[in-house]
Amino acid sequence: MRKSPGENTTVRRAILRALDGPGPFLVTGHVKADGDFLGTALGLARWLGARGRKALVVSKDGVPDPYGFLPGAEAVRSEFPPDPSGRTAVILDTPLADRTGAPPGYFDAAGFLINIDHHPDNAGFGDAAYVDPSASSVALMVFEILEEGGASIDEAGATALYTGIFTDTGGFRFTNTDARITETMDPQTPADELVDRSRRLARLQAPTDFIAIHLRHHNVQKH
């Protein structure tokens, strides 16, 4: 569901307020996890942890082999907590809450539900829904939210978010590599830390096997 720029600003601020809350947080996304969901979830969890918040990342199918290097990947759980009440839940990169693999109606009991997605068929479920079909990736959307709030992102968090942007743009080869990406990667802007602190990912820009794995995943599975 497309919103006006003013509406998007309002919902981003609402998300920032929720993320500034005490938590605990539950961060999840679609089944058959990809780099955008996992990179974003782990980057956000890292940022929350640095602020003293407890954040649990759940990926129903675990962490696929290509993404095992991501900081925090070892802590990802494949099962949802029995009761989400009292938690602030963040659902990433899926137009339907049911596509997380959680039981039907599971998130109805969450204390607050945040929905961040770039798929045009997302109807805007949740207490705060930020849906931007023009965004190349959810990782970019979350990075912009945190940057807008004046957040500092450490190297591990930047690595995770960079992975999400990198994979959903096909290594910056897809047509969704637009001006927003260029501005984010421009070393003359405050966003340069996303690149400067992600040098360890340089190895991913050369090996064709990683890119090929993602391209096959991208072409076959639409999330």
Write down the CATH topology: inorganic pyrophosphatase (n-terminal core)
Unreliable segments of 5+ consecutive residues: 186-223
How far apart are the first and last residues' alpha carbons, in Å?
16 Å
What string, H for helix and E for strand, traces the elements in order?
HEHEEEEHHHHH
According to DSSP, the number of beta strands is 5
Major sheet strand order: 2-1-3-4-5
Number of helices: 7
The helicity comes to 25-40%
What is the total domain count?
Answer: 1
* Main sheet attributes: strand count, strand direction, barrel closure: 5 strands, parallel
CATH architecture: Alpha-Beta Complex
How much beta, percentage-wise?
5-15%
> Which CATH class applies here?
Alpha Beta
The CATH superfamily is known as inorganic pyrophosphatase (n-terminal core)
Structural class: alpha/beta
Compute the CA-based radius of gyration.
Answer: 16 Å
Report the average pLDDT across residues: 79
What's the shape? globular
Question: Which key phrases capture this entry?
Answer:
inorganic pyrophosphatase (n-terminal core), 5 strands, 11% strand, five-stranded parallel beta sheet, 7 helices, 223 residues, single chain, alpha/beta, disordered C terminus
